[in-house]
Each structure stands twice: as C-alpha cells, then as structure tokens.
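Hey L., structure's done. Input below.
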Amino acid sequence: MVVPKKKRSRSKRGSRRSHDSICPRGWTVCAVTGELVPPHRVSPMGWYKGQKIFKTKEERKAQS
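Output:
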C-alpha cells in the first residue's frame, strides 16, 4: 500500500485543486425573444433554434 512520506501542506493541496473548479458556461441569445439562455436549452418562452417547442401557461390560459 502506498503511503505518503511527508504531509502535503494546505497551499500545495490548494494549488493542485485550483483547476478542479467548474468553469461557467457561456450564455447564448435567443434569436426570437432576445433572452439570454444557457446553450442547448429551451428558452422560458418555449423557443429552441427558432421553433416553438411548447406553450407557456399564459398561452394555454388564453387558448382555453
């Protein structure tokens, strides 16, 4: 079994872990509504790549 010979200091441990953090993803602008949306996600208004995917609650209420 491998056992470290000396204790690794907090700063050395932190330096090693500095690249482990998650990078924030870029946001895209919805072509139809102009909202900021995460990539590869449907906008809150129901648009994805210029196509209407689903109706919002307000649209369903207005239709009824």
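The helical segments are 10-17, 57-63. The mean pLDDT is 88.

-- N.
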